[in-house]
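in:
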């Protein structure tokens, strides 16, 4: 168990979360397949798969948990925020730019994207630009939100770190509760409009999903055994997750499909996503053990999950002209199998050829800077704060720490 003021031992690599990222990436793929093949959202299966978009909050919660446990107030050590930001950039942007550029150049629909759309998608600012979402890349709006959390993390850690330990969780809960009202703000409720993007999907709207992970990091290693036993009953939590999906998929709960929700409907969707991500992530984050998610297959898919997330939608869109099947005309199972069959090996290749080399290069650059700064320190020059993990720990933690 970690102690206040010291770096908690519980920051070791959690293989269950690596496997959970695999589940989340495939869940997002399946929700897009269900929509684009026209699976009726009012059917039981169509409703469940249609709400598989709740695996997006799972990504948010995973990142918040893994980064807050390493860089939050419980870490108890000085952190090199320059090193942190460089590692985030090296983790996210290389594969993102390769995929975004490839889609904009090669996907027929995306090739006709406007100059503004191209610039916005290459700079990961598309959610802030009217009409910024480009064909084949529309799913990357969530990555923009994730990157905003990365950028805000140093300020969040500083602000929350000023609070007494007992006040941190109540403050996080309060901010999350206030964020539910985001959709009711007049300028948000009036969007989207001519010249105005959809402000509902800006980062403040999803504070609840990040808060689940942050709170989990705050209580990690401190829960009584009876709570851990409850968290260890995985089937019960998965039933809760599925029931949440079913409720959120009902027309009386909110609009189905891509209908723009009213403020109240959007808030309900965020709350359902909060319950879902808590049910899915907390048992694996706080009561980890060996199981299906720690098997080699899920560990490999977890390593490739960022690229799976990046490439699955353009691959899906290519499946229709390649098979001669028109969108929204069924064949859901066939399109799902074909999309997975192409997405997984392509993602593995991107991981090997882009993600790993970029991460290795980033570590080498920062290690050289650290070594150079250490040399200057010995002669009276400025020093660089040490990172909180060894390079090996940094590699495994970063691998499990990002959305993708």
């Amino acid at each position: 168990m970690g102690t206040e003021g010291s770096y908690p031992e519980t920051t070791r690599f959690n293989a269950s979360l690596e496997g959970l990222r695999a589940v989340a990436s495939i869940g997002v793929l399946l929700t897009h397949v269900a929509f684009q093949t026209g699976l009726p959202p009012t059917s039981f299966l169509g409703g469940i798969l249609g709400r598989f978009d709740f695996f997006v909050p799972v990504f948010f919660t995973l990142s918040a948990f893994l980064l807050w446990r390493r860089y939050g107030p419980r870490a108890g050590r000085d952190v090199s925020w320059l090193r942190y930001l460089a590692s985030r950039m090296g983790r996210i942007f290389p594969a993102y730019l390769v995929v975004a550029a490839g889609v904009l150049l090669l996907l027929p629909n995306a090739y006709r994207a406007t100059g503004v759309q191209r610039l916005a998608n290459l700079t990961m600012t598309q959610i802030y630009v009217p009409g910024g979402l480009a064909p084949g890349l529309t799913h990357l709006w969530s990555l923009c939100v994730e990157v905003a959390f990365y950028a805000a993390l140093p300020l969040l850690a500083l602000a929350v770190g000023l609070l007494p330990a007992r006040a941190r969780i109540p403050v996080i809960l309060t901010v999350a509760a206030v964020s539910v009202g985001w959709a009711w703000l007049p300028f948000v409720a009036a969007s989207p409009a001519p010249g105005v993007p959809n402000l509902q999907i800006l980062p403040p709207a999803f504070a609840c999903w990040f808060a689940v992970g942050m709170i989990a990091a705050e209580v990690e290693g401190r829960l009584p055994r009876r709570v851990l036993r409850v968290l260890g009953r995985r089937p019960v939590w998965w039933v809760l997750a599925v029931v949440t999906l079913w409720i959120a998929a009902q027309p009386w709960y909110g609009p189905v499909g891509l209908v723009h929700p009213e403020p109240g409907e959007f808030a309900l969707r965020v709350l359902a996503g909060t319950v879902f991500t808590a049910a899915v992530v907390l048992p694996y984050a706080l009561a980890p053990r060996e199981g299906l998610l720690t098997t080699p297959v899920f560990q490999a898919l977890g390593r490739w999950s960022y690229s799976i997330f990046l490439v699955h939608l353009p691959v899906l869109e290519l499946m229709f002209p390649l098979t001669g099947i028109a969108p929204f005309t069924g064949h859901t199972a066939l399109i799902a199998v074909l999309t997975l069959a192409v997405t997984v090996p392509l993602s593995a290749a991107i991981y090997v050829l882009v993600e790993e080399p970029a991460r290795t290069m980033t570590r080498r650059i920062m290690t050289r800077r650290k070594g150079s700064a250490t040399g200057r320190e010995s002669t009276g020059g400025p020093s660089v704060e040490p990172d909180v993990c060894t390079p090996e720990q940094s590699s495994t933690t970063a691998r499990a720490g990002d959305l993708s």
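note: The radius of gyration is 21 Å.
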